[in-house]
Design goal:
Elements (H helix, E strand, L loop, with lengths): L39 H32 L3 H28 L10 H32 L1 H7 L2 H18 L2 H7 L15 H39 L5 H35 L6 H9 L1 H12 L1 H17 L13 H5 L16
Helix pairs in contact: 1-2, 1-9, 1-10, 1-11, 2-3, 2-5, 2-10, 3-4, 3-5, 3-6, 3-7, 7-8, 8-9, 8-10, 10-11
Length: 355
């Protein structure tokens, strides 16, 4: 009988003390905290901050870049437009991640949404690194080989590169579906987490390859391009000082994006492969990657005169109407004025890219 030993009379003091009455089972929305369990409040707060700050700024950048592409397309604007689309796609699926965090990191939504949400989520994170690298290469070539590159600089090349980036990221992130359905047991309440040993045998090597191809290699190229971009630009005597400062700010913002947002998560892939398990701090590293959607508008600000003027106009408009009704975002109608800078060449979409 429960509470008694096999000898018949004594309570089970030596084997299971204080086990009666038994603890109630957790409800479906309650996650059992364990070593490395994420702080749900922190996860949810980061998601909300990213959504609130990233959505309006990326929407403003999207409208601005679409108008630029329609009026006068150029490679830099094409890459920036695709980067904005990837951020907005991540933000579109972020409410599903918020719902997951709101139920103590358990998946209470329809099961089919779990792999779809994570597939789009990880694809947008990794395709962002490729577009940032493409922008870095474009800037470096513009100052290192100004004449030769200007003769060969075509929007069609940027469109082809963008398509290749999307295909590469989408193909690699298909590991989400493999990791989700390659199970020996029934589906648990965790979404793309709590893998079995058989799953880890497949997922961990693929994560390592994913980080090598979609982060470490692009990061190396980006660092090389921006270091030399700034070095060459600062050495040019005919470049205004203000433009040099913006170029330095652009390089710092882009490299900070790689170091702060992307590096910790990809380091977790290397550590996981070595330790043969998912590191318990992986969830926190992933939060930094999510925050990339809020930092990309800083890159937009330093990259494009049109976006910079639109941001300033919007902030001025909001500040002037803060005591009144909700702002009507009149800045979206003024980007045409800032867009006149496209007549000066590539300096509009790529700060410091034209000598």
């Amino acid at each position: 009988m429960p509470g008694f030993s096999r000898r018949g009379v004594g309570p089970l003091e030596s084997t299971c003390p204080n086990t009666w009455p038994p603890n109630p089972l957790p409800r479906p929305t309650e996650a059992v905290a364990g070593p490395g369990a994420p702080i749900v409040g922190l996860v949810l707060a980061i998601y909300i901050i990213t959504f609130i700050t990233g959505l309006p700024t990326n929407l403003l950048a999207l409208v601005t870049f679409v108008r630029q592409v329609r009026r006068r397309p150029n490679p830099g604007t094409v890459l920036l437009l695709n980067l904005t689309v990837s951020d907005l796609l991540l933000l579109l699926f972020l409410p599903f991640k918020m719902a997951e965090a709101g139920t103590n990191m358990t998946w209470q939504l329809p099961a089919i949404l779990c792999p779809i949400t994570n597939y789009c989520y990880y694809t947008c994170i990794y395709v962002s690194t490729l577009f940032l690298t493409g922008l870095g290469v474009d800037r470096y070539l513009s100052v290192a080989f100004p004449v030769q590159y200007k003769l060969r600089r075509r929007p069609a090349y940027a469109v082809a590169a963008s398509m290749a980036f999307w295909v590469l990221a989408c193909a690699h992130c298909s590991i989400v579906f493999i990791g989700h359905y390659y199970r020996n047991h029934g589906m648990n309440q965790r979404c793309y987490d709590d893998f079995s040993s058989d799953q880890l045998h497949v997922v961990l090597p693929f994560r390592l390859e994913l980080s090598l191809v979609l982060f470490w290699l692009p990061a190396t190229i980006t660092i090389f391009c921006y270091v030399n971009f700034v070095r060459i630009l600062l050495a040019l005597p005919n470049i205004p000082q203000r433009r040099k400062h913006r170029a330095v700010g652009l390089a710092v913002a882009t490299l900070a994006n790689f170091v702060i947002c992307f590096a910790p998560y990809n380091i977790s892939h290397v550590v996981g492969f070595v330790e043969k398990r998912s590191p318990p701090w992986r969830i926190y590293a992933l939060l930094l990657s999510t925050f990339n959607a809020s930092l990309d508008p800083v890159v937009f600000y330093f990259s494009s005169n049109t976006v910079r003027k639109a941001f300033v106009t919007c902030l001025t408009s909001v500040a002037g109407r803060v005591r009144g009704a909700v702002p009507q975002w009149p800045c979206l109608g003024t980007s045409r004025e800032g867009g006149e800078d496209t007549r000066t060449g590539s300096g509009d979409e790529l700060e410091g890219s034209s000598g």
